[in-house]
Amino acid sequence: MSQQRRSSLKRIGLLVIPVLALVGGGMLFQAELGQRVFERLASQRAQFDRMATLEAGLHIAFCGTGSPMPDLSRAESCAIVVAGDNLFVIDTGSGSTVNIAGMGLAPDRIQAVFLTHFHSDHIADLGNLALQRWVNGAHTSPLTVKGPSGVEQVVDGFNLAYARDQIFRPAHHGETVVPSSGGGLLASPFDLPDRVTPPVKEQPVEVYAEHGVVVTAMRVDHDPADPAVAYRFEYAGRSVVFSGDLIMSRSPGFADFAQGADLLVVEGLQPELLKVLEQNVIARGDPNLGAIMQDVLDYHTTPAEAADVAQLAQASALIFNHVVPPVPNRFLEPAFLRDAPSRFDGPVKVARDGMAVSMPQGSDAVVFGSWF
Fold first, then answer.
1. Helix or strand or coil: residue 104?
2. What is this structure's pTM?
3. Which pLDDT does position 42 carry in this prediction?
């Protein structure tokens, strides 16, 4: 090798070494910086308590606003009720447990789950929710699940599916940290008046009354998913009604049940948008999915129907959850709502995961925000 070539390689080497040193140093700096950022975020999350930031009153948040139709922006049906120091969950669809923690709510503080009915998209996360409550709080008794007749079978199924896991956790962490007696779920069924045909005005039943919180349930029509119920929560002079899934025209008495509610939360299906999806899946050669989309039209509630009932009930505000079909961004919400806002005097919103509503004690205010 010539002297000139050796000199050139030496100069290149002298240039490369500092560059490599800078790259290596940069990677080390990035790792150190990342460690410090992670530590700060972890400290902030560990110290943050959403419930401690809330003023006295009734608070609602949505941990899932979707349906069985795939929607990357929404977990399946789930809502949170915070009443003082009391934390309740209404339905627990797939993906919702992660959102509960993401909103700064500690799963170990959940006192009970209320199920509106037993479709998969309303119960799929029950096992995970019970697990998170158990291991985060060293609970010595299972998570209570309230619902109409049939909740026992649902609970038994989840307990069976998680039976091995409920052995592994205490064996690994010890009885002090994860007491065996706290694993799983405990069914708490309630009775409803006998169903009659044709449907008549259903009578509400009180299903919970503790710590100043009163919860009533009313049977609604979501055939063939029977029984199905709506819930009304009352606390500190404020109230919220969750419709669950229902056919509004075949659920007599729902408007009376929701009378004067500060917030009415109703599932919503927009037929015009769903028909567009139906036509497209049939065109691509998927008549089975097209048939399912046609079938679901007859046991859900349209935005217009919900707005009419909200107006009749003199509710203060109306929110749609269980959104069908998926509405991926705010720009599309007017196409989902259509004329619903013109049929109801109060605010009308399409819920998204993380959306929160506060109803302060001693006030008529209904304040919308986000806990994400």
1. coil
2. 0.90
3. 86
